[in-house]
Amino acid sequence: MEVLNKIIDLFGLSIIKTKDVNLTVGALIALVVAFMLTSYILKFVSKVITRNIPIEDKNKFVSIFQFVKYLVYLFVIMFTLNASGVNISVLLTASAAIFLGLGFALQQLFQDLISGILIILEQSLKVGDIIEVEGKVCRVEKISLRSTKAVTRNQRVMIIPNHKFLSDVLFNWTQNSTIIRESVEVGVAYGSDTELVKEILISCAKNNSNTLDDCEPIVMFENFGDSSLDFAVYFFVDDAFTVLRVKSELRFEIDKQFRINNITIPFPQRDVHFLNPNA
């Protein structure tokens, strides 16, 4: 009984004692135990979350988990000290304004971090994907927790804050497949042989080295225009970054074949009639 009383007295021994703070040996031991349990739980949670994530994405969570650890440890310290009888109201009052200011200042950063975590967990965006953001087509080069690095077709680097992928409309051209369907539109003069036009357009698309051989090009008679018969040839490529070049090559070849076969590409015309008031 005497030994037990000595242990209780030891736990109640004050290490730091002021008017508002009384840190005892027992509170310190409780704090160490709480730290050990918290560390074990955080490691377990980290393994569960990253279990199905590709190994190259796991390293991206190191910084965010480190940040979460600091927050959790801070709450554990406050809770343990409070439960051990230490008055932490003074600390809370002093730090409340600081935390409030930091919260407003880092609001955008937190949105980017949360968005980055969701992107990686859901695998909605991957390195190598071709995306369209705000009318710009680019290839994803790197996904970090705060931002995504992408390169446009004219080799300009875009740094996109991750929150934009959750708040704005994003077109992922290659999420389902790397095969892209594109088209070239052309108008021919009224009276042209439409079957010949169709054959030439299909031939031009098939003979281009960048279009896919196993995906047949399609020609659509789209409209009877004001000055032309409007056609479109649809073709397939497996690299979205080549689309502009392929379209240019097809237009050159279509123009060449139309000239050879005497098919005219008309320009808009208007007939203007002048009335003679004296007639």
From TrEMBL:
It comes from the Bacteria. The keyword Membrane applies. It is a multi-pass membrane protein. The keyword Transmembrane helix applies. The chain crosses the membrane at residues 21-41, 61-81, 88-110. Residues 109-174 form the Mechanosensitive ion channel MscS domain. One of its GO terms (molecular function) is mechanosensitive monoatomic ion channel activity. It is found in: Cell membrane. It holds the Pfam family MS_channel_2nd. Keywords: Cell membrane, Membrane, Transmembrane, Transmembrane helix. One of its GO terms (cellular component) is plasma membrane. Gene3D superfamilies: 1.10.287.1260, 2.30.30.60, 3.30.70.100. Residues 184-265 form the Mechanosensitive ion channel MscS C-terminal domain. Belongs to the MscS (TC 1.A.23) family. This is Mechanosensitive ion channel-like protein. It comes from Flavobacterium glaciei.
